[in-house]
Specification:
The chain has about 100 residues and is of the alpha+beta class. About 20% of the residues lie in helices and about 25% in strands. It is globular. The N and C termini lie far apart (about 35 Å).
Length: about 100
């Protein structure tokens, strides 16, 4: 999220919905996975009360672990459909799950 996004009012995460959680930007952008919201929550409010170190390199992953340990989210088994690096024929593939 960049500074221009700070004006947007966040919406709460609703129990039962599926969400993807991402971290990083540009070449370090990563989708952490697909998660089911186990109980509704406002991520901004939860982050305000989280006592972890926000400036450490692994703070995003530790906050993700906190959300899971507090019962807000649960991992949902999923697979990735990679459409390609730059076009549909370039490294197209399906990853994860049973082989």
């Amino acid at each position: 999220m960049d500074e221009s996004d700070n004006d947007k009012k966040p919406t709460p995460m609703i129990e039962g919905e599926l969400i993807t959680i991402s971290t990083g930007c540009y070449s370090d952008y990563d989708v952490e996975g697909v998660f089911r919201v186990k109980k509704s929550f406002d991520a901004v409010e939860v982050l305000k009360h989280w006592e972890g170190d926000r400036d450490s390199y692994d703070s995003c992953k530790r906050f993700l672990g906190y959300l899971a340990s507090q019962g807000y989210i649960e991992d949902v088994p999923s697979r990735e459909l990679h459409l390609g690096n730059y076009d549909l024929d370039d490294n197209f593939g399906i990853y994860g799950g049973e082989s």
